[in-house]
Amino acid sequence: MDFKYDVIVIGAGHAGNEAACAAANMGSKTLLITMDMNKIGQMSCNPAVGGIAKGQIVREIDALGGQMGIVTDRSAIQFRMLNRSKGPAMWSPRSQSDRHKFIDEWIKIISNTPNLFIWQDTVIELIFENGSVAGVITALGVEMKAKAVILTAGTFLGGKMHFGNKQLIGGRISEPASFGITEQLKLLGFRSDRMKTGTPARIDARTIDFSKMTEQIGESDFHKFSFLEEEKRELKQMSCWITYTNENTHEELRKGLAYSPLYNGQIQSIGPRYCPSIETKIITFADKLSHQLYLEPEGVDSNEYYINGFSSSLPLHVQIAAIHTVAGLENAQLFRPGYAIEYDFFDPTQLKHTLETKLIKNLFFAGQINGTTGYEEAGGQGLIAGINAHLNCVGGNEFTLARNEAYIGVLIDDLVTKGVDEPYRMFTSRAEYRLILRQDDADMRLTEKAYRLGLVNQNRYNLLVSKKSEQYKLIDFISNYSIKPSQVNEFLFSVNSSELKHGCKLSDLILRPQISINNLATAVPALHKKIDEITSRKEEIIESVEVLLKYQGYIEREKLIAEKLQRLEHINIRGRIDYNSLQSLSTEARQKLTKIDPETIGQASRIPGISPNDVNIMLVLLGR
């Protein structure tokens, strides 16, 4: 072994795995360094992937040739499409995974990826040469050289766990923390701070009374995460269970607040607003008499259940007493208590949109180190970092995604433009163009880009071409086929839709809320025949066509707005303006523009505190 690589990835979590696979699949000799080869892709918190906006990110990762969607489908034990009662811009896939199967599938993929190697060790120091990263030094004293390094350390940098007043050093329960890198980077001028996250207790299924809970059964239709036709959900499907806290639960929790690390000053760092601990809930929402809890299975062959909604760092005896007041958990036995963990992160405004650091060339950050929370946000960042690390090695043009191209683009732009003051979590509300960033069309938006990069193979590209062709043929037929009242009025009456007085195109009927392509096909033999001509992925294509037809006007309007605003993204300003010399800018604008040093006028306009007047001043200056 010569220990010389193109790309070294530190950390085999969700960001690190995507980064390593992307760089290796594009042709870089890549090394993935992990503390434990048996925990590659470990689901540190809940055993689920996707959810509101997060599911869209996973589909984008898959469309770009990433692995998370494939791993999730292979390990799925329950699938649901959330937000079905809302429009398709809000539909979000979510899947429960078998935790052990999830790891096994990641290990299979990484072990069989050409150009990708694994080393079990801990990195304690980075090597720098001439303003660029040049490699790493491990705890075993091994010096490894690389053209690019991607740091995806998750919660391991300076990790400290809190179980009531009991504190343990570690990046995850029973796993050591990592020290050295934060201190080294701070000496180089990087800004770092601390964040906090938490996880709930795990419960033994044999001691849960499910008869006192509400069963939540998954869906069994065609939906999944990967666009690849051969990927299926083949594991036994399992239910989740719903129960609630009550006033007795809250009283037990209140008794222990004096011992809570969150409220006695033991934890000083920033916690997640959108995934609060149970002790935070009873204070923030003091008027609520109950809080919903989800009991989620950890695997097909496991008795372990995750209590979603009961994250806590209270002492063990307080957690047990509170859990025993919940319906169905009166006799619950714990596998382990919940805990909070504090860890180091770096201000993401120190990054470019490629996720390369501004201070050190060829050094990339991805995942929780950038202040995010969630497997999906980490995976999306890792993919972009891996792509750009490879491109830096071979001298290619950088690859970024705009806000109107992907939720991943929204995520990264938010991070590098606005920074974070709490763990960042993606929501559909963060995207201005969510109608054109739907989960069903991620392949249409992104797969061709990945194909040009060499990250997507010919087979996947052919699937995209085939889907586009089938979509076009079905849309063309529906838009041009004329129907007479006598042919459909009986059907229209049966679905409580007004009858026709004159003939019209099928597309006019599809616009009606009571009508779908499938139910209309029962009354129009020609449409039924056209649908039968679709030989593969029929349900997926029909659903996508229906969305495009029903929302065509809104989609086109959103595209026009996006294209208009996109012009500002092509006006490059980095290095062209001395903001401190522009007295016509507000003091806040001068300070923030100097700190972030935006790449374009578009990015500058999204910095909090930058007014339209500040943008106009810069445009006038550039015009001169």
Could you explain the architecture of this structure?
- By secondary structure, the chain is α+β, with helices and mostly antiparallel strands.
- Among the domains are: 138 residues, Elongation Factor Tu (Ef-tu), domain 3, CATH 2.40.30.260; 101 residues, tRNA uridine 5-carboxymethylaminomethyl modification enzyme MnmG/GidA (Arc Repressor Mutant, subunit A); 53 residues, GidA associated domain, C-terminal subdomain (DNA polymerase, domain 1).
- The chain contains 21 helices and 22 strands.
- The strands form 5 sheets. Strands 1, 2, 6, 7, 8, 9 and 20 form a 7-stranded mixed β-sheet that branches.
- Strand 1, helix 1 and strand 2 form a beta-alpha-beta unit.
- Helix 2 packs parallel to helix 11, helix 3 packs across helix 4 and helix 12 packs across helix 17.
- The longest helix is centred in the last third of the chain and has 23 residues.
- The protein is globular, with a radius of gyration of 26 Å.
- The N and C termini lie far apart (57 Å).
- The mean pLDDT is 95.
| SS element count, helices | 21
Strand proportion, as a percent range, falls in 15-25%
| Cα radius of gyration in angstroms | 26 Å
CATH C-level class of the domain at 202-339: Mainly Beta
Integer average pLDDT:
95
Structural class: alpha+beta
For the largest beta-sheet, the strand count, sense and barrel status come to: 7 strands, mixed
Q: Rough shape?
A: globular
- Give the low-confidence spans: none
SS elements, strand count = 22
The end-to-end span amounts to: 57 Å
